[in-house]
Amino acid sequence: MVNLDKRTGFLTYKRQYPEKLNVEERLKNFEEFEKPLTEEQLNIQAARCMNCGVPFCHDFGCPLANRIPDINDKVFRGLWKEALAILHSTHNFPEFTGRICPAPCEEACTLTLDDEAVSFRQIELQIVEHGWDSGYITPQACATKTGRKVAIIGSGPSGLAAAQQLARAGHLVIVFEQASKIGGLLRYGIPDYKLDKTKIDRRIQQMEKEGVKFETGVEIGVDISFNYLLKSYDAVLIATGARTARELNIPGRDLQGIHQALDYLTQQNRTNAGEKINKADRISAKDKTVVVIGGGDTGADCVGTALRQGAKSVTQIELLPQPPHRRAANNPWPEYRQILRTSTSHEEGCQRIWSHLTKEFIGESGKVKKIMTSALDWNIENRQFTELQKETIHADLVLLAIGFLSNKKCEILNNFLKVGNFSADEFLTEENQKAIFTAGDVVEGPSLVVNAIFSGRKAAKEIDEFLSY
Ligand SMILES: Cc1cc2nc3c(=O)[nH]c(=O)nc-3n(C[C@H](O)[C@H](O)[C@H](O)COP(=O)(O)OP(=O)(O)OC[C@H]3O[C@@H](n4cnc5c(N)ncnc54)[C@H](O)[C@@H]3O)c2cc1C
Ligand code: SF4
């Protein structure tokens, strides 16, 4: 360990970013491409933390209230095992957020007032990876069983966090998942180059050893009724996510070559996992002029995926104007900064068009060929725009990444959710309604993995209290 003076840490040391494989190399496959910092480099990064009296990173920034200054101090001292124990005390899966979290903790770091934040996402990632490599992460099975049974519907991060907490509290937990593999959007939405799926498998194995049972390929409401679950379990947690993609109902939407982003991303993740996809159903960007509609993170994932598939070019269109490079006055610290963000996918080669409304898809022989847009003049204060000149953009693959609505597919669950815990369904008595809980995007709306984990932990606490009466 290097000899550091933490009292002057952030004055002496600059933030260091992990090295990445160059673009040419990383576009050859779907593998992760960031290299970890060395232990010494990480000690230095942790030494930048000021151990603030009021640590905004911890209580304002992090939904999980990770004890960030304490963790930074342990890493600064090279006490990796202790750092891991503190991290795990508030967080079940730091290896997921360490890779893909937009890190609201860093946005709230006091250092961002006139410097770069402490690189806590990187620190978190390397603590947990160090823990796996060193054999510190082992199953934490509960010695005393309560004999109470909990059914969890959905194996995304909210369902998984709840399952682990409840199993560790001694309850028998069964997770029902309609897909063939566990993980929800961690598995099927987020591209492999951002989150290698073996990192999910590793946690699932730990959870199985802790007693969690997983039933895949089972859709509740179709294969097993919700009523049956209610009768057979002491509590049921609905953690089914928000997966209904927003539509763009404009002329030409029925042309071939226009797809929802999640269908496209899921297919590539399935292909990477060795699953067979029918040739006729295959959505490929190879040699195509790709246009992604929607300037958010899902859109950026489509950009990176299309480039890896060999797209001729990728353009991303966003309705809103380009955000500023610095915080605006109405977006003060420690709020999340609404600024222009350039993801690693954008760095890989993408044209970004702002302030454009998609008006129509134009095709030839039933296939999309062009997109007609209107340039917009925005009045952001009252969120009004005026349409200016029309433009056409060439496109032979269009990916719609314009957000998600609630989970409309499972009627029984929606009946329950729609009426806020009370449903007209006759099987729901006042008594058994108390045994129904919800967590994650299905109740919070489309959000982040860190929020889903928080929501799952909160639901687990409520269920544990309910079962303890
Ligand atoms: C493309 C994409 C990229 C994203 N990237 C990021 C990112 O980089 N960082 C970040 O923080 N967040 C990201 N998010 C958001 C994040 O993935 C979600 O907020 C999070 O996964 C929500 O977790 P969840 O447990 O609520 O639901 P989900 O992850 O959606 O899991 C719900 C699970 O429930 C299952 N299910 C649904 N209905 C039933 C049923 N009736 N029976 C059985 N099973 C059922 C589904 O199959 C699914 O597996 C991304 C989202 C998308 C779409
Ligand atoms: S706000 Fe930043 S500097 Fe202050 S304790 Fe948190 S990580 Fe350290």
Summary, kept brief:
The protein has helices spanning 9-12, 23-26, 39-47, 56-61, 68-76, 80-88, 94-100, 104-107, 120-134, 157-168, 185-188, 198-209, 226-232, 261-272, 297-309, 344-347, 411-418, 430-433, 441-444, 449-467, and strands at 149-153, 172-177, 213-216, 235-238, 244-245, 258-260, 289-293, 313-317, 351-353, 356-364, 367-379, 384-394, 397-400, 404-405, 436-438. With 469 residues, the protein is of the alpha/beta class.
Describe the structure.
By secondary structure, the chain is of the alpha/beta class. It has three domains: 129 residues, Alpha-helical ferredoxin (Fumarate Reductase Iron-sulfur Protein, Chain B, domain 2), CATH 1.10.1060.10; 158 residues, FAD/NAD(P)-binding domain, CATH 3.50.50.60; 156 residues, 3-Layer(bba) Sandwich (FAD/NAD(P)-binding domain). The chain has 20 helices and 15 strands. The strands form four sheets. The protein has a five-stranded parallel sheet, sandwiched between helices. It has a five-stranded parallel sheet with strand order 6-13-7-8-9. Helix 15 links the parallel strand 7 and strand 8. The longest helix is centred in the C-terminal third of the chain and has 19 residues. It is globular, with a radius of gyration of 23 Å. It starts with 8 loop residues before the first helix and ends with a helix. About 2% of the residues have low confidence. It binds flavin-adenine dinucleotide (FAD) and iron/sulfur cluster. The site of iron/sulfur cluster has 15 residues, from helix 4 and helix 5.
